[in-house]
Fold:
Amino acid sequence: MPKMTWSNLPLWALTACRDILRVATSSKRLSCILDEVLEIVTGIPDLDLGRNAAIYVADCSTDGHKLLHHRQSEDMTLPRVIDPSDVAGSFPEGFGRTCLYTIPLCINDDQPATGAVLLFGRKARRLSAEKIAALHLVCQEIARIIVNRSGHGGSLLNVVELSTDEIYIFDPRSLGIIRSNATASIRTGYTQQALSAMTTVGLKVDLSEADYRDRLKPLMSGRCPSISFDACQRRRNGTVYPVKVHVWRIRGEETDLFAEVAVATADQRKAFGLLEQVFDAIPGGIGVFDNRSRLLMANRRLYDLMNLPPERFPPGSRFEDILRYNAERGEWGDGDLDAMIRERVEQAELGLPYSFERERASGKVLAVRSEPLSQGGYVLSYTDITQRKRAEKELIRNRDELEETVRQRTAEIEAQAAALEEALKQEKNINAMQRQFVAMTSHEFRTPLAIIDGAAQRLIRKRGGIEPEFLVDKTHQIRSAVARMVELMESFLSAGRIDTGKVELALSSCSLPKLIDQAITRQKIFSQSHRFECDLTDLPPVVRCDALAVSQVITNLLSNAVKYAPRAPDILIRGWEEEGFAVVSVRDEGVGIDAEDIPKMFQTYFRARTSTGIAGTGIGLSLVKQVVCLHGGDIRVESQRGKGSTFIFRLPIRGPRREDTVVVTDAPEEATAA
Amino acid sequence: MITVLCVEDERDVRELIVEELQDAGLRVIQAENGKEGLDVILTQRPDIVISDITMPEMDGIAMLGELQINHPQLANMPFVFLTALSDKEKMIEGLGAGAESYLTKPIDFDVLMAKINGLVVRIENRVAAGLEF
Structure:
């Protein structure tokens, strides 16, 4: 190995060593120093060590080297003890994939190694002799630091004296302070000499001697190299301040001594307290978790929002346990809880920001956000957005209501428009029907007029004398035409009366068969080609009704039967009694009525499609229906196109009840003779 | 001899017209509605047709339309509508269908006979001139 001096060291090694020396003289704890040293060593470029390193030191009680300190970025389980003669063999199977550099730890080249520094490279790389030499130098420095810190005389005392923390070397049996540093004197207000007459526990406010000794037990038994606990110390002036206490066992040649380092935590506490206050002032719940999903810090609001008992989940609690606590209370509903918890934890540990909203069983809505921290871990924040959600819902509901209202109004307006359109259409229909009615009425009057006028003209124009038979014939034509006109006028007048509601039924006991017979006789004058067959034996002999009106009804039905059955001469009139009603049906075998026209048959002015070419006004049947209804009866039609029609009307035998008709007057009995 | 067909569903009206025509020395044949009238036209080939419009089975205008479309060789046959339908629309419809004349009821026999006589003269002149219609 070439002799290296500080002057011919490569630049990187010089930097490293200077840093080491700097930290070595500081008052930091050994583990901190070693951590920094190893960081420098493993961070040396070209070595490609992957920042993994371990320091093993010789252990007097065994032949092996014990693991003193390590830092690692990769997941490796380092052996607690290695065999210095076969370092590689001390590692378990599979560890050999990584490249292992072993550098002996010794203060001087001529002294035996007191341990080894192990460096783990990602890949096997032959280091140049120069670099190995530099590493040796660095490791020598490490060895010196360790040895100095481990209680080899003056060096340690220097460090102790310079430390900014209170350091007390004391006898574990009597707890008497053997030596203290300047900082202890300054902090406590006692002189170093005064302190030498005191015990460490004597400075503590909150610990009895028994408690203190209790805490030292692991050190006494040698179970662990150091212990830490929180305590409060009293100054000479009586004021109290909090400290973090670390106690080490220092191996001496005859007897072991203990070293207590008291780190004043007041400033930390103060800062931390401030942070806690700030934390608690935040309206949302905040939880800070480390990279292993352990709770570092949480504010009160977090416990409130998540309904967590603070005593059950102090800092240090696992995120997973917090989740499980809520999940098992049914906050997450049914399902595989383990899988859901795992998913949440994995999501949180992914190191990516995310957010979601969750409704708790209580109805509270929380917005959950996770923000990763730069050095691992994450901050979870919980915001109660119940009010906002409620407001949102309210807003949505209002909007929906508004929309619904608009929709309803629109529908109403549309319905009104449709109704208006329908009314207009009906108006138009009625207009059309009325026009047709006027035309047909004119036709209906003109036909008998044509007969009267024609017969009169014929009488005048007859040349060569008028024979008596001719005169009789013409007179007969004129009279029957006049009768027809009278009947026509009667029906118009009746329609007009009923329409204006001024109808008066002149009720009397009438014989329906008689009224029917009379109507047939009259009809026969106009319709000599038709045959009227009657079956009226089952009719009640007397019905209370308006003889004239009912007579008109019958005549109308008969003339319709004739009119709409021009080629079928047989007309059948039947009468019977049922349920207190006298029923009359008039059947023809004429043109019939389309099914869809049947419901409209009794509307004023309506004329069925099958009536094309057959004169008519469209008021006859409407009049018939009105008369029948005034009597408290009803009328219906059974028909099929081309198969003839049957009109059936019913009249109550005892006459109309009062409410059936507008005005009912009792006619004198002689009117029956009509 | 000129033959006139009278198509009319009202028996009394038909009778009056037939009498009048017969008194004028014309041969008259009768039909009760459009359908019957069409049959008579096709089988007996009258020279003149006097027809009502409102009739069951087939009305006068439909009868004329049937003749014009399916029997164009008879389309020149003079058609006189004699109807109680006095509205202008119906008159336009009737004349538009190809009627020679549109007379309304009550019947003025002077006017009717003047019309018929005019047609008779025209037909006789055409026959004399050797023209068919």
Observations:
- Chain A has five domains: 6-150, 156-264, 284-384, 391-468, 503-673.
- Confidence is low (pLDDT under 50) at residues 1-9, 17-27, 151-157, 662-674 of chain A.
- DSSP finds 16 helices and 23 strands in chain A.
